[in-house]
């Protein structure tokens, strides 16, 4: 959902942000209980059907605008509710036997999950004695079509009874189906808590967190009413009402009012692949090229950064670029990102393939008295002075390529040498929107690229 004055039909919201928006009141309550510290560190555990995703944020309360900073790389794994579903389906297959189970089509097992297992799974509590599987009509009918009855099949099974169309199972049999999922989630939460330290709250969101059995397990392992004492493995557990819809609720809040998130700190450095003037004191001679005989030596593939890692991202950025040649028909720009601020170039230094060994020996014997080229010697000297030259070029990732036609004004035979291309980058939401315009005419061009740079969000909804 977007406000009527939005220029985009779809606005993408990141799930940890949505969870933070939906749980803002409970986070503020925890902050007050901790005597209003400058920083509140909390964990978002999003337990869905397929995966469990974990993110770690800091609330920076030192400014009048609440700053939510991501302090740990998002992590998680395929430990969601479907792992439990698969384990319970395996339990049913053991009940009916391999011969009958293999004869049932996949849709019967899928219907069993949605008609019966999902509801039964979320009904289990730590003190439950039995689990009841209902709505088994389709499953029982499929068995009868194969000449067997579910009631007859479970007569000899310990702890399992078929009563009035419902299957009653002792809870100990079904609790075993949760072990793999619970253990994996517990281990990952513990690993992040130990590594990050100082976490005071855990937000439980996602449909799988509607399981009281899962929430009880997390509460026992990590919950503590006296979480204010600073134990790194004991936190306040926050589970919002309808936690399966918490992320959706936060996304709707953001869609209706994108100003709820006013600022993001970049997880990546962003920049364009550009050409700059060669400096013998700074640049590797192997990167030196001559673009135009009337111009000095140049260095290509320079990573011209306009956003650095951890830097607050403005809503808009505007960059101007000049064509290299007067008769150039168009200009192509490539937008890159990198996880490091130390990356200087988007492409590695070109290294020609080594000749065969025999050729190397002949070359050595022929040039034994040669002093070598000045370019080779200067390159060797540069590498000796800068052992990390050209570091991390492979860390650059290309996001988009922008090609802008260059126009010559009417009545003129060529462009003015200072006529620039203006690139406008819009980071106001979770997509990069790029507009390119030639200062000497032509249509305005629009481009869009996906990105995941959110390290920090600034939200004004909580009063300080």
Structure description:
The strands form four sheets. The chain has an eight-stranded mixed beta sheet with strand order 8-7-1-2-3-20-9-13, sandwiched between helices. A five-stranded antiparallel beta sheet has the order 11-12-10-15-16, with no helix packed on it. It is built from 13 helices and 20 strands. The C terminus is likely disordered. α1 crosses α11. It has 464 residues and is an alpha+beta fold.
Overall structural class, as computed from helix and strand content, comes to alpha+beta
Whole-number average pLDDT?
77
Q: What is the percentage of strand-forming residues?
A: 25-35%
Placed side by side, the strands forming the largest sheet appear as: 8-7-1-2-3-20-9-13
Task: List its traits.
464 residues; alpha+beta; single chain; disordered C terminus; elongated; 13 helices
Provide a brief overview of the structure.
The chain is α+β, with helices and mostly antiparallel strands. It has helices at residues 15-22, 24-33, 81-96, 98-103, 106-123, 137-144, 150-153, 171-175, 179-196, 212-222, 246-256, 357-366, 374-385, and strands at 39-47, 52-60, 66-77, 130-133, 160-163, 166-170, 199-205, 236-238, 263-266, 269-277, 288-289, 298-307, 312-313, 316-321, 330-338, 396-405, 421-426, 431-438, 445-450, 454-459. An eight-stranded mixed β-sheet has the order 8-7-1-2-3-20-9-13, sandwiched between helices. Strands 11-12-10-15-16 form a five-stranded antiparallel β-sheet, with no helix packed on it. Strands 14-17-18-19 form a four-stranded antiparallel β-sheet, with no helix packed on it.
